[in-house]
Amino acid sequence: MSESASKLFKSSKSPEDTLSFGTKLAYGAGDLGTAITANILAVFLLVFFTSVAGIPAGIAGSILMVGKIWDAVNDPIVGILSDRTQSRWGRRYPWIVAGAIPFGIFFFLQWIVPRFSDNPTTNLWALVAYYIAVSVLFNAFYTVVNLPYTALTPELTDDYDERTSLNSFRFIFSIGGSILSLVIVLAIFNAIPDDVAQQYRAIGAICAVISVLPFFWCVFGTYGHVTRRQQLRGAVETSTQEMPILQQLKVAFANRPFLFVIGIYLCSWLAMQNTVTIIPYFVRDWMGLSNAVYTQVVMAVQVTALAMLLVWERISRRVGKKAVYILGMVLWVMAEIGLFFLQPGQVGWMYFLGILAGMGVSTAYLIPWSMVPDVIDLDELHTGQRREGVFYSFMVFLQKMGLAIALFLVGLALDTAGFIESTAGEATPIQPDSALTAIRVMIGPLPAIVLLLGIGLAYFYPISREVHANILLQLHERKHASGNPPDTEPGLR
Q1: How far apart are CA 385 and CA 245, in angstroms?
Q2: 3-state secondary structure 349-397
Q3: Mean pLDDT for the chain overall
Q4: For 196, what's the count of Cα atoms within 13 Å in the CB-facing half-sphere?
Q5: With bands split at pLDDT 50, 70 and 90, how would you rate the model's confidence at 156?
Q6: For residues 464 and 435, which has the higher predicted lDDT (pLDDT)?
Q7: Cβ atoms of 355 and 300 closer than 8 Å
Q8: pLDDT-derived band of residue 5, with 50, 70 and 90 as boundaries?
Q9: What region, left, alpha or beta, does residue 243 occupy, with left being phi > 0 and alpha being psi -120 to 50 degrees?
Q10: In this structure, what DSSP letter does residue 16 have?
Q11: Could you give the C-alpha distances from 400 to 143, 219, 302, 378, 397, in angstroms and in order?
Q12: CB 33 within 8 A of CB 245
């Protein structure tokens, strides 16, 4: 499409594609609850199982594994079902409203220790069954609220830049929720210093309430905009009932730009999870610092990523999503390489590199998720159907698999390199040179290589602002001239 045609389409687009500050704020709030609960579970649940519930570490790990497997499996199921939902509230909102309160209840139930029997063995296996059941139900409701929420983005706006802005608000709340969860935990630990079981019950109760309320803010703050937008356009949501599930997935993976987005997201997420997992070992065993310093380094990364979201969003409006992602990844690669060459005692440089990495991490949150709605528009052009749930479910699935893969690879590498383990109360062992080298490689060159691969994929990603405007123009023309075949952009299939 020519530049003049692109400008003509932009000038004629609906004003409902421009979102108010209140709508963006409400949408962003929808990610607060899942961010709080996910961070709390990732950091503290295994410790709770082994130190409060009295479950052996191996069995506790199996409980977590069952929950993760089910969490990954249910994403495509809920995504497809939400695509097929038809109600006066639309496709996404009934799921969020119905799932919000059970989501909070089952989060809280993970932090209590019921007593089933006076027999220790019987009680242990009853506890295992209880926590598996609660974990499965919590992860099911996590997906019920989170997957339809993430699929709201393309229903709120078609505008290329507004989608980036919308996701910047989302990840402000996401990163802010992770930081807030740590603040809440520290406050509870200080308020209840002597009763560990009560500490975790308080964490479960307070975080459950704080996590549930933002879902209703999101629904009531965005529903009116979605409704007005549909009424203005006279649009009726298309369903996926006529297309079998396997065919839906086949068509989704035949969408070439979607494969690029998957690769871009997976590269950045693997690098992020690998770095987060290895940082404690790097700070303690290579830099010779305490665990408190590790927490401060993570906070430096998170706070920087949070502060940079709106900055990157504004830059994206000028130079586009691809350029912003590539720039952010370059900064992140520089930080990772710098950490590899960092020497014990260079603490100031460590914090500086953490801040530099946070600037790159911010784009890893923002850009891939803002690309997905553009891919969904292209899919609608090719198939005539809106299937946000299918695409978003695979993005969430990859996010969870990325975490599992990163944890597995880090553990395997440390074990192969001869890392010396220790238990609580023991002095921190001096690690052999092979283990220290492995730690440095995993904090530096390894994630840098993965990020460079992501840069290459982003460079060849085919949907620019102009191409996306062309897609929207063809969709607009097809809605007003039914029966005419779409003229798809060459090379996007």
Answers
A1: 13
A2: HHHHHHHHHHHHHHHHHHHHHHHHHHHHHHHHHHHCCCCHHHHHHHHHH
A3: 79
A4: 10
A5: confident
A6: 435
A7: yes
A8: very low
A9: beta
A10: G
A11: 12, 25, 19, 26, 5
A12: no
